[in-house]
Amino acid sequence: MRTLLQIFRDTKEVLCRYDYYIYIQKHILHLTNSEIKIPHLMGMQYLGKPGRFTGDSGAYAIKKQRITMQSVEKLVRKYYKPEEKQRRMLEMIHRKLDNLGELEEMFSSYSRLYLYEKEQGRDSFFRDLPHCYEIIKIVRESKDTKYKEVIYQSKEAEKREMVGIEKMLLAAGIQADENLTKFILRLNKKFDAYHTVDMLNDNEAMLGKCVDKREKKLVADFLALWTGKEGGV
Q1: pTM listed for this prediction
Q2: φ, ψ for residue 49, nearest 5 deg
Q3: Which is it for strands 132-134 and 114-116: parallel, antiparallel or unpaired?
Q4: Which tens digits make up the pLDDT trace of 54-64?
Q5: DSSP H helical segments within the chain, as ranges?
Q6: What are the tens digits of pLDDT across the range 167-180?
Q7: Which run of H or E residues covers position 149?
Q8: Residue 81 burial (CB < 10 Å; 0-12/13-18/19+)?
């Protein structure tokens, strides 16, 4: 079992190094985090007196290991009665902690993600809330470099973009086979940009987008495919 400190550090690595832009129908939500918000995501607001383990004080207590998995159970048993409520509170906190460990995987493996609107007095952990919005796309932006990347796109949004790419290629007289279309979609997601034919023809600019060897290989592989297509340069 991971410690509270490990969960805190892992969550900070995923959430606090980046800004996230969440696209739902007709809206873009900007999500930015600092480490003082993490204790709340971990469920520490349910422990002890209000504010004791949230914000700065909560982050400090976790980093100094003044609160641990063992003390979580002790605090729940101290502040909640009867035993059934203790059981439910511990279950909720542990599920929050477990879910935080799946954030990175969630962005890349789920075919559908939803944003739930929290009701007054109810915790968004519960998924019987009446208002939810399907997430179309999530863009991650590095706070240091401002580099953007699409880390999630719904299957429906991908299909729509694939159709748009096919139409663009056909209009340019380029055979829109599935392999090429998917490759362009990968480039669009990797660099958070809709690449036109003119952009794809600019080898120097395409390679100039790359920030590491993996991206350079992706672009090089695409250019090798692209130069074999009518209209590619």
Answers
A1: 0.69
A2: -75, 155
A3: antiparallel
A4: 999 999 999 99
A5: 4-15, 38-41, 55-63, 69-79, 83-100, 103-109, 155-171, 178-191, 197-201, 203-208, 213-226
A6: 999 999 998 889 99
A7: strand 148-153
A8: exposed
